[in-house]
Specification:
196 residues, alpha+beta, 4-stranded antiparallel sheet, 24% helix, binds N-oxalylglycine, binds nickel (II) ion
């Protein structure tokens, strides 16, 4: 019912904020750094329903992608597996765990962290027998948020400098939707020293 969903959204949001704080600290930044950069974060929820598929080898439930937002909190179907992530060039099944969420780093945290955290390539497969349901909650920067990696992560100390140029989330978003989804990774378009 409405109240349950509303509570869920609020709790998931708080969890996302805590994770952003912990990620900031793990990068040696102020605890609030990521939250400050992302501003008043948008939150979207997708309820994905994957019906049984007579020939799962011919199609994906969801083709390979990275999430274009900041952070995704995914509640998997507890009974039916289907999520896979790309690790070291291989697709690995992420089977559901009781009482556990799957957390995806999205493109914005990859850019913000200057590539120290990488957005994960993932996809969903189907099966012939059982429908599958998942609930994804996406935390997104506010439209005007300026996404750029802080000095501490982008060099000074002889490392290679910023990988990506600064951009607003709106700018990213517009690029993202103006391409075909099977084209190169959208973040590639924001690399330093690339000519468009
Ligand atoms: C998504 C997603 C995976 C799943 O909604 O972006 O990756 O298991 N979902 O449904
Ligand atoms: Ni996804």
């Amino acid at each position: 019912c409405r109240e349950t969903v509303s509570n869920y959204c609020q709790e998931v949001r708080q969890l996302g904020f805590r994770l952003e704080e912990l990620i900031s600290e793990s990068l040696g930044l102020e605890k609030d750094h990521i939250r400050n950069v992302l501003g008043d974060q948008g939150q979207h929820m997708a309820v994905n329903f994957y019906p049984p598929c007579p020939q799962p080898e011919l199609t994906y439930g969801l083709p390979s992608h990275t999430d274009p937002n900041a952070l995704t909190i995914l509640l998997q179907d507890q009974l039916v597996a289907g999520l896979q992530v790309l690790k070291d060039g291989k697709w690995i099944a992420v089977n559901p765990h009781p009482d556990a969420f799957v957390i995806n780093i999205g493109d914005q945290i990859q850019a913000l962290s200057n590539g120290r955290y990488m957005s994960v390539w993932h996809r969903a497969i189907t099966n012939t027998k059982t429908a599958r349901l998942s609930v994804a909650s996406f935390l997104c920067p506010e439209d005007d948020a300026l996404i750029s990696s802080p000095q501490e992560l982008a060099g000074r100390d002889g490392s290679s400098g910023a990988i990506y140029r600064g951009f607003t989330y709106t700018e990213y978003y517009e690029k993202f939707w103006s391409r075909n989804l099977d084209q190169e990774h959208c973040l590639e378009l924001f690399k330093m020293n690339t000519i468009e």
